[in-house]
Amino acid sequence: MTITKLARKTVRELTPYQSARRLGGRGDIWLNANESPFANEYNIKCDRLNRYSTCQPDELIQAYADYAKVRKEQVLTSRGADEGIELLIRTFCEPNLDSVLYCPPTYGMYSISAETFGVNTKTVPLNEQWQLDLPAICDNLDSVKLIFVCSPNNPTGNLINRQDIESLLDMATDRALVIVDEAYIDFCLEASTADLLDNYPNLVILRTLSKAFALAGLRCGFTLANPDVISLLLKVIAPYPVPVPVTDIAVQALSPAGLAKTKFQVLDLSANRAYLQAGLSMLPNVTVFDGYGNYLLVKFPDADTLFNALWEHGIILRRSPIKNCIRISIGNRDECEKTLAFIRDQIELNQA
């Protein structure tokens, strides 16, 4: 008997999520993981590393509650929003019985996390405008416990209509939780659904410090929900999910000075996004979709050839599951200029 045969059949057959780091690459410009180009400095204390961390550090919970404009009993922190996805599935879904529903094209971890725990998946693709197909979702709610909606959506970049989210919440009342993944909401806070938490007990919101706060390596995320949901999640979360240095850095990032720095950096990235969008839109047969995160989805006449040329030149972008589309993370101005210049040169070369 081989070791592999000892693993669960589901795991043996599982195709893992192809993260940017797993895909690798060699280059000087990395615009493939929706990371921030800013490397901010923080003070780290080492006098408490001999003690276990608090499961839900009060200072961190309060700081994020203040930022998100919710009550502290509506906040749970975890190892990135990815752990929040897993906690919800483990808490609310019976393996081989319940299902999660998601709407592709969207973030791939909803399905992989469900499959890992033996939970069924249902898909209802977004419509041609990349909005929710509410009638189709309604027809597929049998056995569904969790409905994942990403807004701004990854990889398309668009916001999901707020009225549709409210309609979905009404539709799923007493049947399923609606999880709105707001990993990129810090780039358009006015579009958050956090103000709906008190009106919809079945609403759950996922947040992270990885994107706008430039802390992807910290692995610090948040789940916003009504206190009953939070209490249930606390039953299954690991005993010490938030390392002491993570708490220290996150609290600094959420301080008035940290929030001011993040706001400035978001404005900088938004300006770079506008610059890149304008430049790409001027190229022949190129379509740039409106985006609200720190990335753009762009359609090219021959995306595979262009992607490979960029890759060989050391400009690492992200392939999209959408035909002839590439997702480009927004870097600093120099990175955006070099990427735009190379793409322009390649398109002109192919037309010659």
Describe this structure as you would to a colleague.
The strands form three sheets. A seven-stranded mixed β-sheet has the order 2-8-7-6-5-3-4, with helices on both faces. Strands 9-10-13-12 form a four-stranded antiparallel β-sheet. A two-stranded parallel ribbon has the order 1-11. The longest helix has 26 residues, at 256-281. The model has no long low-confidence stretch (mean pLDDT 94). It contains 13 helices and 13 strands. It has helices at 3-6, 9-13, 20-23, 58-68, 80-92, 109-116, 134-138, 162-171, 227-236, 244-253, 256-281, 303-312, 333-351, and strands at 29-30, 75-78, 99-102, 120-123, 144-150, 177-181, 203-208, 221-225, 287-288, 295-299, 315-316, 318-319, 325-329. By secondary structure, the protein is an alpha/beta fold. α6 (109-116) links the parallel β3 and β4.
Concise structural overview:
This protein is of the alpha/beta class. The chain is built from 13 helices and 13 strands.
Low-confidence parts lasting 5 or more residues at pLDDT below 50?
A: none
Task: Tell me the overall shape.
Answer: globular
Average pLDDT, all residues: 94
| Strand portion | 15-25%
Count of DSSP H/I helices: 13
Q: What descriptors fit this protein?
A:
four-stranded antiparallel beta sheet; alpha/beta
Q: Which helices and strands appear, and what pairs or packs with what?
A:
Blueprint lengths: L2 H4 L2 H5 L6 H4 L5 E2 L27 H11 L6 E4 L1 H13 L6 E4 L6 H8 L3 E4 L10 H5 L5 E7 L11 H10 L5 E5 L21 E6 L12 E5 L1 H10 L7 H10 L2 H26 L5 E2 L6 E5 L3 H10 L2 E2 L1 E2 L5 E5 L3 H19 L1
Parallel strand pairs: 1-11, 3-4, 3-5, 5-6, 6-7
Antiparallel strand pairs: 2-8, 7-8, 9-10, 10-13, 12-13
Helix pairs in contact: 4-10, 5-6, 5-9, 11-13
